[in-house]
TrEMBL record:
PANTHER family: NADH DEHYDROGENASE SUBUNIT 1 (PTHR11432), NADH-UBIQUINONE OXIDOREDUCTASE CHAIN 1 (PTHR11432:SF3)
UniProt keyword annotations, A-Z: Cell membrane, Membrane, NAD, Quinone, Translocase, Transmembrane, Transmembrane helix, Ubiquinone
InterPro entries in the cross-refs: NADH_UbQ_OxRdtase_su1/FPO, NADH_UbQ_OxRdtase_su1_CS
Pfam family, one: NADHdh
Protein's UniProt keywords contain NAD: yes
EC number(s) on file: 7.1.1.-
Subunit structure: NDH-1 is composed of 14 different subunits. Subunits NuoA, H, J, K, L, M, N constitute the membrane sector of the complex.
The protein, known as: NADH-quinone oxidoreductase subunit H
Organism, as annotated: Arachidicoccus rhizosphaerae
TM regions (residue ranges): 15-34, 81-103, 123-146, 167-185, 197-217, 246-269, 289-309, 329-347
GO terms of biological process kind: aerobic respiration
Length: 350
């Protein structure tokens, strides 16, 4: 009876959606490497990749083939199993974060309603924080298992950086949750789409500024890439890695950048909402397609901002990194939370 009651159609739908999200994330991460080189070339008045395929579009595949066929080296003094586990954890944590992101409304296929969200849990934001925290273990395990003092120093930097900036980011999100009253990402998007409501960036501009700075630190992107300081720590925590283990660390950074952009678009910029468009006038499938395109446009804009900042702002010193996190962002996040609470109480008693 239990087997007969099992909804195999729903199971297959979720498997297909998971596969699309995972391979889509990997594909965007792959071509983010090409886009980063093109953005850097544009800002430095160069051409960028232009040999592998038209406009260099096959360059990511050439880089991937190089990593796949490169010789696999594991140092004799390394802890073999943890050395393998580190990049695996980094990539896994980057991919599972996208499970609660609503990519659009829903599709209607053969009379079935298919939500374009892997899991609509009522604690979606807490899930994202938990998944992001696992990525720090990938850095720490990789740095420690290499049995290299430079890798260990870089891993310690990365862990302390993540702890420092997650605090300010969490407090900035508390102010947003006070306004929305929910932890579900789907409900947060629907609130922003409701008539008479605006995107959350209108209500929380300071909170968004704090959040995006902390996201840069969480993704180890310049100017917060202290755990990968090549000129200080000999390539950082993945110094001893080669072949696809190194590739996993590098791709995990770009997957994190893609997922972080999706989270920012969802929380502060309406997710898959298109401004001044009444989605109810469209058929469900057309509205879903329009929503996906709208969300992807927002994600691409954020990814460009990541790359623009990387090639514009130099890397901070470590003391500057800690001072910004603890003495600047944390007090600002606390002040933003208190001001938000006061305004909400004032409006309730008005």
């Amino acid at each position: 009876m239990t087997l007969l009651a099992f909804d195999w159609a729903l199971f297959i739908e979720k498997l297909v959606l998971i596969a699309v999200v995972i391979f889509g994330s990997l594909g965007i991460a792959l071509y983010s490497t090409w886009a980063e080189r093109k953005v850097a070339a544009f800002m430095q008045d160069r051409i960028g990749p232009n040999r592998a395929g038209p406009l260099g579009l096959l360059q990511p595949f050439a880089d991937g083939a190089k990593l796949i066929f490169k010789e696999e080296i594991i140092p004799n003094s390394a802890n073999k199993w943890l050395f393998i586990l580190g990049p695996g954890m980094a990539m896994t944590a980057a991919l599972i974060t996208s499970a609660v992101i609503p990519w659009s409304s829903h599709l209607e296929i053969a009379g079935r309603i298919m939500p374009l969200q892997v899991a609509d849990v009522n604690i979606g934001i807490l899930y994202i924080f938990g998944a992001v925290s696992l990525g720090v273990y990938g850095i720490m395990i990789g740095g420690w298992a290499s049995n290299n003092k430079f890798s260990l120093l870089a891993a310690l930097r990365g862990a302390s950086q993540a702890i420092s900036y997650e605090l300010a980011m969490g407090i900035a999100l508390i102010a947003l949750l006070m306004l929305t009253g929910t932890l579900s990402l789907k409900e947060i998007v629907e609130q922003q789409m409701a008539p008479g409501h605006y995107w959350n960036i209108v209500y929380q501009p300071l909170g968004f500024l704090i959040f995006i700075v902390c996201i840069f630190a969480e993704c180890n992107r310049t100017p917060f890439d202290l755990s990968e300081a090549e000129n200080e720590l000999n390539m950082g925590y993945h110094q001893e890695y080669s072949s696809m283990k190194l590739g996993f660390y590098l791709f995990a950074e770009y997957v994190n950048m893609f997922v972080a952009s999706a989270v920012m678009a969802t929380l502060y910029f309406g997710g898959y909402d298109v401004p001044f468009l009444n989605e109810s006038l469209l058929s469900p499938n057309v509205a879903a397609l329009v929503g996906i395109i709208a969300l992807m446009v927002k994600i691409v804009i954020f990814i460009f901002i990541f790359m623009w900042v990387r090639w514009t702002i130099p890397r901070f010193r470590y003391d500057q990194l800690m001072e910004l996190g603890w003495k600047k962002l944390l007090p600002l996040a606390l002040a933003n939370m208190l001001i938000t609470a006061i305004v909400i109480l004032w409006l309730q008693h008005k």
